[in-house]
């Protein structure tokens, strides 16, 4: 009987430990890399999502991603990152052309969009100083993208 209680206690601790770890992970935000095809599928399915268009060589894009590393630790924002020059199925020119069919006013990177039910609801464009944490947080709050409780 003691053996059964000991095994049961150990299993219970493992289960509870796993649950608390899971809860911590879901409170943080995330940048998910997506492809042009995945973006098109989200639009066709009329999904609601936030997307940022970036390029691997872009200085403002790198600055944005560095800022997001710390910002997303405290904010549960899910951001889809379409890296225009790294798509496995398209050249960077093709990726831009396809993306601009829907996001017609995208003229540079990084540019963020909030898509609600498959329709563009909001946009945040990089200025001369890039996208600062203050600008990004204001955009997140305006669009109610932070799901952290």
Automatic annotation (TrEMBL):
<dbReference type="Pfam" id="PF20207">
    <property type="entry name" value="DUF6568"/>
</dbReference>
<dbReference type="InterPro" id="IPR036249">
    <property type="entry name" value="Thioredoxin-like_sf"/>
</dbReference>
<dbReference type="InterPro" id="IPR046698">
    <property type="entry name" value="PedC-like"/>
</dbReference>
<keyword id="KW-0732">Signal</keyword>
<feature type="signal peptide">
    <location>
        <begin position="1"/>
        <end position="21"/>
    </location>
</feature>
<feature type="domain" description="Thioredoxin">
    <location>
        <begin position="13"/>
        <end position="145"/>
    </location>
</feature>
<dbReference type="InterPro" id="IPR013766">
    <property type="entry name" value="Thioredoxin_domain"/>
</dbReference>
<protein>
    <recommendedName>
        <fullName>Thioredoxin domain-containing protein</fullName>
    </recommendedName>
</protein>
């Amino acid at each position: 009987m003691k053996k059964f209680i000991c095994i049961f206690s150990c299993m219970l601790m493992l289960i509870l430990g796993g649950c608390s770890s899971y809860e911590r992970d879901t409170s943080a935000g995330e940048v998910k890399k997506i492809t042009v095809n995945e973006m098109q599928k989200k639009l066709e399915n009329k999904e609601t999502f936030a997307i940022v268009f970036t390029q691997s060589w872009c200085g403002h894009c790198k600055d944005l991603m560095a800022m997001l590393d710390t910002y997303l630790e405290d904010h549960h924002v899910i951001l889809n990152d379409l890296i225009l020059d790294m798509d496995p199925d398209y050249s960077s020119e093709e990726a831009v052309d396809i993306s601009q069919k829907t996001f017609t006013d995208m003229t540079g990177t990084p540019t963020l969009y909030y898509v609600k039910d498959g329709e563009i609801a909001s946009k945040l464009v990089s200025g001369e100083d890039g996208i600062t944490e203050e600008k990004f947080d204001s955009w997140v709050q305006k669009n109610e993208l932070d799901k952290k409780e």
